[in-house]
Amino acid sequence: MTNSSNPAQAARAKALAWILQGGKRLLIGGQWIEAASGKTFEVINPATEERLCHVAEADSADVDAAVIAARKAFEAPSWATLSPHARTRALLRIADKIEQHIDELAAIESLDNGMPLWFAQGAVTATVDIFRYYAGWCSKVLGTTIPSDGSTLIYTLREPLGVCGQIIPWNVPILMASIKFANALCCGNTVILKPAELACLTSIRLAELIQETDLPPGVINVLPGFGATAGAALAQHLGVDKIAFTGSTAIGKQIVRDATSNLKKVTLELGGKAPNVVFADADIEKAVQSAVKTFCGNSGQVCSAGTRLFVQESIHDQVSERVAQLAATWKAGDPFAADTKLGPLISAKQRERVWSYIGAGQEGGASLRLGGNAWSGAGYFVEPTVFDNVRNGMRIAQEEIFGPVLSIIPFKDEDDAVLQGNDTSYGLSAAVWTRDVSRAHKVVRALKAGRLWINTFGESDPAMAFGGYKQSGWGREFGQESIEAYTQTKSIMVRM
Ligand code: NAI
Ligand code: MG
């Protein structure tokens, strides 16, 4: 098993060596330091339930120190007056660094979060493109010239916001940290990142790699710690100019309340309950394969996952049978084994939460097509679970489960699909499958969500904005909108 000629095992060994070397601290002002309190917390491998290491635990005192460091870096000539081209080169150097460490970062992510290695490799590879995408933006954050009579000149500048607090979840940490860093840095901000207490190791390793590229000290700071202490202190802090948060809708609302302290800017990427709508005229096999991938991928711990599969009545039974058949091939097990498709959930608590929804589905009268068996052995695994003949009003169809649990819901026609698809408090993503071009465009216009797909699901591109309608969030990441989310406009009049 530990044969190092096996690339997965070699990557695992390298990642473990880094994890076990100790020294997992806070990054403040270019220095790796212990928490002011001296406290640490445990990092658990969810596939084995074993402890991997301890990490320094930041709280409000460390947030204070990080804010001072980030402010100093924001105002330092080495960052504030850096030419946009130099900033491009800095982000490209980070992309190159990540590219040289894909297997190691992926293996760290896999050990810490439990995701299969192949999934982690995909996520790390995507971060390379994200840094390169934002590298290109540095020299394109444009102001405007405003029409006026010849006696004045009016123009605008787009300026960075300042010190940005960034709070990320545990589901795909390397991707979350990279989106947040790259977006903020390309606009000239400085950053304090608080990774999730349940998976913080790739944020630490990424920051180490970034430090090796000679970014000025204090431009990025990393504070592993808990939400109620470090996270809340960041959201409330008078010296923080913006909070970018990704996580649950409940905590997103708390962030908004905390941010009123100084009316800092807030962007939120929150939960989802995406409708994935399959019409009888679709390429059904393609739709089914994609539907299984979206609800099982990362064990369903994805905010944009297609967790409500709306299927036209005439094909409901056929589709649900095929979905169950394919989902059953998603083998759970060791994230480093070549044939593993499904990793564990992040924690025992998350497994309890998912189990409570599986119970609610059965009590609510949905029919269980697949799953429902407890996992015997170590690791917080839940096997793919498929309910069909679900009614959209049931709890399993309304609440974000964040596990590999699918609700298949029958619908009659276009109007019914749209009505039911939109009957949710969320609005992050949605998809429609049909061979009818007009119908496809009509339905995506009618669905209330921030990112939509036609005849595919879940594909991403950093140039394509991502964010929520309704209670799925505020603002957008990726694309031009994300540049606006990390800058502010200054307008200037010159009397000639
Ligand atoms: P969470 O929203 O509590 O955690 C996300 C991040 O917020 C973590 O870094 C956490 O430390 C931080 N946080 C927690 N409380 C905070 C506070 N008061 N102030 C500032 N930061 C705070 O999510 P949790 O509890 O880990 O997961 C529970 C459920 O939330 C999941 O089952 C899922 O439904 C949803 N969730 C959704 C995510 C998404 O991307 N849409 C990501 C993670 C969780
Ligand atoms: Mg962990």
Structure explained in plain terms:
- With 496 residues, the protein is α/β, with parallel strands linked by helices.
- The chain folds into 2 domains: 288 residues, Aldehyde Dehydrogenase, Chain A, domain 1, CATH 3.40.605.10; 187 residues, Aldehyde Dehydrogenase, Chain A, domain 2 (3-Layer(aba) Sandwich).
- Helices cover 40% and strands 20% of the residues.
- The chain contains 17 helices and 20 strands.
- The strands form 5 sheets. The chain has a 7-stranded mixed sheet, sandwiched between helices. The chain has a 6-stranded mixed sheet with strand order 9-8-7-10-11-19, with helices on both faces. Strands 5-6-20 form a 3-stranded antiparallel sheet, with no helix packed on it.
- Strand 5 and strand 6 form a beta hairpin.
- The longest helix has 21 residues.
- The radius of gyration is 23 Å and the shape is globular.
- The mean pLDDT is 97.
- The site of 1,4-dihydronicotinamide adenine dinucleotide has 26 residues, from helix 9, helix 10 and helix 13.
